[in-house]
Amino acid sequence: MATVDRPLLITLLQRLAGALSAAELAVATQPPDGAGVARSLGRGFLRIDLRLVPAALPRVRLDIDPPADARELCAAWGIARPVAVSPDVEQRSWQILVAGEELPDPYARRIAAQTITAGRWDVRPYLSARPAGELPGVVCGASPAYDVRERGGAVRWIELAPTERMTRMLEPGHADVRSLLGAMASAHPAWHGSSAGRSVDRAGTFVAIYDAWAPVAGGALVDAGEGEARASRLCVVPGRLGEHLGATLLDTLEAVARDRGSARLRLDSSAFGLGDELPLARCGYAIGPPHAGDAEVEGWAEKEL
Q: In which domain, by residue range, is 249 found?
């Protein structure tokens, strides 16, 4: 087992916190020569209702050789209460999570735990083996929860994936669509013509992103023909800055458009009413014509899928 003196590992969470797009993820996870880390990319999937759609963002696996000391890695990342928990019933693999509150249970000490996150990424370090020693007196779900500070361990690989949010495809007249459009029109009076922004093309489908069962972002998607999909009525609810909802919305619209066979996605001028909440340039969109903040100017943003 190696001590954690590899800059890529020590600064990984910091690097990921600023990475929004697939290109930025590639830069943040690129191992330098001789780093003892091998990167592999895999296809990610987005769950929409009960369907799985190929996602715009990949999943990344970092294999570490020699394995890194789990205590040192968690300390470098500032993880105060790391626990090793098995995500499968056969307990063949052991993942490091962040321990949360103790839960009421008359039979055992039971805790909640959550995935390590950095920006819009879930970070899942895996141990090379089950922690040594007797079973701990605390469980998380159905798994024993080993205190990494006490038991240690060797981190053999790290998996990175976009943080999941519930996503649904809604009919244009759905109550949640009206709720999102109303919130946007109230907060941004110039948002694509205000009153006109309260309705969605009946030929379209509304892609909605939820948090805690409430819609927080979305956009209407239509097939414009000749390999082009068009998105309009783009919404990100006010007061949710810093949660990367705009980037998540763009990725979701791209995934749905690509799954439907489109080779290009064009966003209408409602995208410009959201300013930096939609990181268009960072996510690879070409923009034109120049938009000066006039709601009557027809602007667009476009990306080849």
A: 166-304
